[in-house]
Design brief:
9% strand; Glutaredoxin; Glutathione S-transferase Yfyf (Class Pi), Chain A, domain 2; 51% helix; 10 helices; 4-stranded mixed beta sheet; single chain
Length: 215
């Protein structure tokens, strides 16, 4: 199994967390999103992922090599193929809540902070890309906390790690990068701290990846 990813990509980070939680070995293949115009735009990478985004999971199944992109699709595949430990609740409503919270981050925040979006905001629209990003992160975190108040235990949905927590942790890292005040989000930072105590989250952390930029 090979994971084509970038150390600071929140979507890549989600998949790393899931792989570590499930104890799955993988080869780390760095894809630098900025250097020399971005390795994601190379012909070789476009052949793997025509959208030119990270991550892409490469694996063998039924005698063929497959490539999956889109982090939540990858998480769903891993959950079905390697069901233990489970990263979704056992009951249908719990699973729906975990997916809903994950999607608040995945579709409600992350696309608006994506590098290809912020590059256009800055270079082509001559806007303040940092202010743009901070606004949408803050707006999304407000919604995430309000929704999580209905389901949170030790983690965002009860007392077991789910897709929701896997999406939360990289998003809070991005929030700090862009100067978002996390003071109002005590529930989210409490859950983040609980996740930070787990070895899988520690191993997947952006700053610990082989292609991480020096501090």
């Amino acid at each position: 199994m090979r994971l084509h990813n970038y150390w600071r990509s929140s979507c890549s980070w989600r998949v790393r967390i899931a792989l570590h939680l499930k104890g799955l070995a993988y080869e780390y293949v760095p894809v630098h999103l900025v250097k020399d115009g971005g390795a994601q735009h190379s012909e070789s990478y476009r052949a793997l992922n025509p959208l030119r985004t990270v991550p892409t999971l490469e694996f063998e199944h039924a005698g063929r090599v497959h490539h999956l992109s889109q982090s939540l699709a990858i998480l769903e595949y891993l959950e079905e193929r390697y069901p233990s430990p489970a990263l979704l609740p056992a009951d249908a409503l719990g699973r729906a809540h975990a997916r809903m919270l994950a999607e608040v981050v995945n579709s409600g925040i992350q696309p608006l902070q994506n590098l290809m979006v912020t590059q256009r905001v800055k270079a082509e629209l001559h806007g303040d890309d940092r202010a743009w990003t901070a606004h949408w992160i803050d707006r999304g975190l407000g919604a995430l906390q309000a929704l999580a108040e209905r389901t949170a235990g030790r983690y965002l949905v009860g007392d077991a790690v789910s897709f929701a927590d896997i999406c939360l942790v990289p998003q809070l890292y991005s929030a700090r990068r862009f100067g978002v005040d996390l003071g109002p989000y005590g529930l989210l930072t409490r859950v983040e701290a609980a996740c930070a105590g787990l070895a899988a989250f520690q191993a997947a952390h952006a700053d610990r990846q082989p292609d991480a930029a020096p501090a």
